[in-house]
Specification:
- The structure holds three protein chains of three kinds.
- In chain A, about 40% of the residues lie in helices and about 25% in strands.
- Chain A is an alpha/beta fold.
- In chain A, helix 3 (about 95-100) runs parallel beside helix 6 (about 135-150).
- Chain B is an all-alpha fold.
- In chain B, about 75% of the residues lie in helices and about 0% in strands.
- Chain B is globular.
- Chain C is mainly alpha-helical.
- Chain C has a two-stranded antiparallel ribbon.
- The two termini of chain C are about 15 Å apart.
- Residues about 1-20 of chain C have low confidence and may be disordered.
- The chains are: A alpha/beta, B mainly alpha, C mainly alpha.
- Chains in contact: A-B, B-C.
């Protein structure tokens, strides 16, 4: 579903993504792993259009989206939940969710998809009128994922969904991701620093080091490779 | 006592006009974090256009709506062609560009219409209402002024709170990157923000035209007052624009009535400086101080 | 930005002891090069410029000498303002009002109390500097557009004082001053305009030496540091508020001196000359010339004097109407401000530096390097 070829993305003189190639099959969960600064978030940003790649290709559902703008990419069904969630604090929970589906032409579907998101995240329905700033960290993460789902995406880019969350909430989020894939065949590219929990839910893993792909394999093999684990994954 | 009432009513009427200009500043600041120093010039131009349309067509309302429409278009065009290039850059750049635009607009007005100020008709009678034995300094035109500004403010409120477009604009203003990820065309939202702001400014120009006459520099004062009102209420807050406008209108009216009309500009400046010294983020702000 | 950097031909400034390493001067023989020591260098430069100005003024007619004098006092004001805005990052829309303070002080001291000119100019500079302390203290708490708005208020409000206190300030007509008389030693028929040009140029050279030294000094570095990153500067031990006020005071002093020189040249201090338009013209001058650069202040001063002249000539040659002609300089200022900031933010001086770099690189047949820090 997503093909990345020799992608290069820079911030000034820094080559954050230095020739990364990977492929995400439809319906799979692929984890992108590596230490801080390895280029994981930059990779997602280059794919979703926030940052313009310097060179390389990105193909989504066989369409070239390398130079496409972020606001157009989401319309094609590729949703990006940025690092920290990107919840808009000044808006209410419901307004944040509504924001996620505004680009879709089908207005009549909106109440339906809102209902589905609320069923997935009952907490959000409880707090629907509250300002997003009063949510806890875990609730915000749920809100940002829920908002992405409002657009009925075909693929989700998740940037460190468990960042800053208590372990029990983080693992619940991981379970949720697996659940989503089961129910809706959603394809997921998951960036995580917590490699252990990511590999437990992912099918495949890609390990980045200093902007380059260091290893790519199915998750069981990666988890079993002791040397790799110690060097790059921290466990 | 009647004097006080007169001054109060006058303050409310003028305050509504200042609030409209303040709204123009606030809308632009919220969207693009820029103070539009050219606001006075833009509303001056649209009022001049209204004046020309009125004299050539004989219809006030035609000129009125042409000015509003032109304000809307002018705001959008200015953002798209000029301001877009300095958005997100250092504040110095946007200050210089908007001042450059102000200077240019005033020069163009001088070229087209010359510097001699011309009179501008009010929408309705300015003769005050007669109650008992006293004719108050508040007439049909003042009622129209207040209602028109409140109407525009209400329309904007409805737009922002209850429509999809309004939600997109708010998202674009608060978190442009996140908004883009939700498919919001942030650039277009900024253009629309400037267009609406300029429309509010145009309304103010039409409402104050009869008082100040129409000339290239005649709207500088109302622009300063609008800016002071916006700062007073909080550049981030549309409610603040309305409240700030009202407070400033009342304050300046009292100054004019009790201390002399020549002190009004100085009083406005004093209030502006006082607010900037004491609480620069204004009344309705969430002051986020950064202390080391 | 490219990845690689050239290895420096000279050891870095950190490694050498003593005064900072000057810019590369190319292959000039040692006796032609300027000394490294900042003060000496600038004094020599000032003497050099002074000689050139003296020669020019001897050969100019009265009208052109007046022009020279005007360029000189504009430079005096612009130099201070470009340090404030370009180097220190504070936007001021109120320096026209500060020039008014200097002008009126000079006019009162010379005209009413019979001060000798030199003392009056010095006193006017001091008075304006003190005003700068007050305004600067208020300004130091503001940033960006808020600062612009406050100084704008100052620019609009201050000239109103002339109307409020007509007895002291001469009201609309202002205060006139007798023309400065050249000393007898220069001869009885020494042209007045040349003397005025000398006075104004002396002010300009004085300001040049002081500011050129300041740019290279610790104070200059403090100005830049606060502009670039206030938090970092504070963490590094700089007193941000004091730095900002100092920058304001320095620029105010320059504006005050310029205002005094203006009175010398025009023999008049009237509110009409110090409206908002002057502050905006000064802003145009520093932006067009190149922010933060003394040479840029010179280009700006020349532009401010000659642009209205050229635009008038343009209007005449195209037989444009009176309205168009009188508004043309303003329109050009507005266009210049917008275009320069968007297209060439470093102004004329920046463009020249760019050209020099290209020429330099072409001569040496090496790829152009990054701008020196």
């Amino acid at each position: 579903m997503l093909e990345v070829e020799d992608l290069v993305a820079t911030y000034g003189p820094v080559f954050a993504v230095d020739g990364v190639s990977l492929s995400v099959p439809a319906g799979s969960i692929t984890a992108v792993l590596g230490a801080n600064g390895a280029g994981k978030s930059s990779l997602l940003r280059a794919v979703s259009g926030i940052v313009r790649p310097r060179s390389g290709r990105v193909r989504f559902c066989d369409e070239d989206i390398t130079a496409a703008k972020a606001e157009d990419i989401v319309r094609r069904g590729l949703a990006h939940v940025p690092e920290g969630g990107g919840v808009i604090a000044e808006l209410s929970v419901e307004e944040n969710l509504r924001l996620g589906c505004l680009f879709r032409r089908d207005r009549r579907d909106r109440p339906k998809v809102l209902r589905e998101v609320f069923d997935l995240f009952p907490r959000l329905e409880e707090h629907r009128r509250l300002q997003a700033s009063s949510l806890s960290g875990g609730e915000r993460q749920m809100l940002s994922i829920g908002r992405a789902l409002m657009g009925r995406p075909r693929m989700l880019l998740l940037d460190e969904p468990s960042l800053g969350l208590a372990p029990i909430i983080a693992s619940r989020i991981m379970d949720l991701i697996a659940e989503l894939r089961e129910k809706t065949k959603l394809t997921v590219l998951l960036v995580e620093q917590n490699a252990k929990s990511a590999l437990s839910v992912a099918d495949r893993g890609v390990v980045l080091g200093v902007g380059r792909v260091v290893a790519e394999d199915d998750s069981k093999t990666l988890a079993a490779d002791d040397q790799l684990r110690h060097a790059y994954l921290g466990f | 006592m009647t004097r006080f009432i007169d001054l109060t009513l006058n303050g409310i009427s003028n305050g509504a006009i200042y609030a409209a200009v303040a709204l123009a500043f606030v809308l632009i600041w919220r969207a693009t974090r820029i103070v539009n120093f050219a606001a006075g010039g833009m509303l001056m131009i649209t009022t001049f256009v209204a004046s020309s349309v009125i004299s050539s067509s004989g219809s006030y309302w035609l000129g009125f709506f042409v000015a509003l429409a032109m304000g809307f278009v002018l705001g959008g065009v200015v953002e798209r062609l000029i301001i877009r290039r300095v958005e997100g850059g250092p504040p110095l750049n946007s200050v210089i560009v908007t001042i450059g635009l102000l200077i240019l607009l005033q020069a163009i007005a001088g070229m087209i219409w010359s510097a001699t100020p011309r009179s501008f008709p009010p929408a309705f009678s300015i003769r005050g209402y007669h109650v008992g034995s006293h004719t108050y300094l508040f007439g049909p035109f003042d009622v129209f002024t207040v209602l028109a500004v409140l109407g525009v403010a209400a329309a904007l409120f409805l737009l922002f709170r209850f429509t999809d477009l309004g939600l997109k604009m708010r998202a674009a203003a608060f978190e442009p990157v996140v908004a883009r990820l939700q498919g919001v065309r942030v650039g277009n939202m900024f253009t629309l923000g400037w267009a609406l702001a300029s429309l509010a400014g145009s309304l103010a120009g039409l409402l104050i035209g009869p008082q100040v006459f129409v000339g290239p520099n005649n709207f500088d004062a109302v622009a300063i007052f609008g800016f002071a009102a916006a700062v007073l209420g909080g550049l981030d807050s549309p409610i603040g624009a309305l409240v700030g406008g009202l407070i400033l209108g009342l304050a300046l009216s009292y100054v004019s009535g009790y201390a002399g009309a020549s002190l009004v500009t100085l009083a406005a400046l004093a209030i502006l400086v006082a607010v900037l010294m004491v609480r620069p983020s204004g009344i309705f702000s969430s002051a986020k101080a950064r202390r080391i | 930005m490219s990845m690689g950097t050239e290895t420096p031909a000279q050891p870095s400034a950190v490694e050498t002891a003593g005064p900072p390493v000057g810019p590369r001067r190319g292959g000039l023989p040692s006796w032609l090069r300027l000394p490294d020591q900042t003060l000496l260098r600038n004094l020599l430069l000032a003497v050099f410029f002074g000689v050139i100005l003296w020669i020019l003024s001897e050969n100019f007619d009265s009208f052109t000498n007046l022009r020279l004098a005007t360029v000189a006092y504009y430079f005096t004001a612009l130099a201070g303002l470009t340090v404030l805005t370009g180097l220190n990052g504070q936007i001021s829309l109120g320096h026209g009002a500060l020039m008014a303070v200097g002008a009126y002080s000079t006019a009162i001291l010379v005209g009413r109390t019979g001060f000798p000119l030199g003392a009056a100019l010095a006193a006017a500079t001091a008075i304006t500097a003190l005003t700068g302390v007050a305004v600067g203290a208020a300004a130091s708490r503001l940033r960006g557009p808020y600062l612009a708005g406050a100084t704008l208020a100052f620019a609009i409000g201050l000239p109103g004082l002339a109307d409020r206190y007509p007895k002291a300030f001469g009201g609309e007509n202002g205060l006139s001053v007798a023309p400065p008389t050249p000393p007898a030693s220069l001869g009885l028929d020494f042209p007045l305009e040349r003397w005025e040009a000398w006075i104004a140029c002396l002010c300009a050279l004085l300001v040049f030496v002081v500011l050129a030294n300041l740019l290279r000094s610790r104070v200059g570095r403090a100005f830049r540091a606060v502009r670039d990153d206030e938090v970092a500067a504070q963490l590094a031990g700089l007193n941000v508020a004091r730095t900002q006020v100092l920058a304001f005071v320095v620029s105010a002093a320059c504006a005050g001196l310029a205002g005094g020189a203006l009175v010398v040249v025009t023999q008049l201090a009237a509110p009409g000359a110090f409206q908002l338009a002057l502050s905006l013209a000064l802003l145009t001058g520093i932006v067009l010339g190149g922010l933060g650069s003394l040479t840029g202040a010179l280009w700006g001063a020349i532009a401010l004097v000659y642009l209205p002249q050229w635009s008038d000539d343009l209007a005449h040659s195209f037989s444009l109407s009176n309205d168009v002609q009188s508004n043309l300089p303003l329109a050009l200022y507005g266009i210049v401000l917008m275009v320069v900031i968007v297209a060439a933010p470093q102004g004329i001086q920046g463009a020249l530096r760019g050209l020099a770099r290209i020429a330099h690189a072409a001569l040496r047949k090496k790829p152009a390097t990054e701008e020196e820090a």
